[in-house]
Amino acid sequence: MIPALAPLFQGGFSSYGSLLRLAEPNDSAIPLTDLFDARRLRQSLYQFRPDLKGEDERALLSIWSKYYFLRLLPPVLAANLILQRALPLAVDALAIELDEHGLPGAFVLPNEGQLLVSSEHPLSRFEGIMRDNLQPVITAWQQALGLSPRVLWSNAGRYIHWFTGELKGAGLPEMLWSPGLALFAQPAFENGERNPFFGAYQDRMNANTGTLLTVRRTCCIRFRLPDTALCEDCPRLCRKGMT
Asked: pTM of the entire structure?
């Protein structure tokens, strides 16, 4: 565990403490940029799901990417929202430890980061996460295997949306979790660049049950893989006959 982040990972959040660490002697982690290479990326995908080799690799990358976002974003957001700390996430300085299934097991940071710089714009605190990591990662994976950036941004947004709700549900003061909601409410950053998370969730009717659902704007395309059910927030649930 990174010492500066130790106050975060207690109680219900203790499991996140092992997901971020500093480099160790004889470290087994690989540079994150290794996974920008299509051949190396495919190795991890088929280590994760060897039974799906020969199926739609874009859909397989979509599922694999969810583990990347699920394991990186919650502890990074916790540091940002609760400790007011920006972590160093630049892709050329970050390493990644893959587990026995070829999935991201831990992220190796070059240092403990620094306190956020105060700004009036609600998205400024997230610029490092977006600019240094999510944007280059998503661009690289799109170039490697042809998966739409919209799908990857949607996958990342899913875990930001979910974790912000977890912080709220944990009973934390509103001032600690509500800034995360700005990522879905603000159309642009301070410099005018479009926010890819804006409007990522919509309230729509489930065409099969008649109930109101909060669904993502973009499907993760996992349905293209055999015997794979739709996500519970999939927009395809709002189409007749889809399950």
From this structure: 0.95
